[in-house]
Amino acid sequence: MSDRSLRGMRLGTQSMETESNVQPAPRQRVEYRTTDGDRVFVTFAAEAEIPQVWVAKTGREAYLVNGESDTQNDDDKPARTHWDMLMERRSVEELEKTLEDRLEYYRSHYAL
């Protein structure tokens, strides 16, 4: 029996299908550049909407080459920051009063 042992396959790790006569989905390779001049290439599906900005591996924003590099239109509002949203809810006087209250609390409870 040892001379005719059967060999099996690992489950789920190998496929019996071949890639002959299989056409991959159409793709497009898009180039982005950072302000430092680093080039970033990203592959998208042919029908995908291409973003104007891509974050490179370095963490910097890269802008689409051969496209509109202006990321903000005149109609777009600037991004609101945390401070902008806070100032919509509170006045500077309210914030100063809150700060003084918290400092007084910490001084009284955590005095050295």
Automatic annotation (TrEMBL):
InterPro entries assigned to the protein according to its UniProt record, in alphabetical order: RbpA_sf, RNApol-bd_RbpA
Keywords, comma-separated and alphabetical: Transcription, Transcription regulation
Gene Ontology MF terms in the entry: bacterial-type RNA polymerase core enzyme binding
Gene Ontology terms: biological process: positive regulation of DNA-templated transcription
Subunit structure: Forms a complex with the RNAP catalytic core and with free principal sigma factors.
Function: Binds to RNA polymerase (RNAP), stimulating transcription from principal, but not alternative sigma factor promoters.
Protein name according to UniProt: RNA polymerase-binding protein RbpA
Gene this chain is encoded by: rbpA
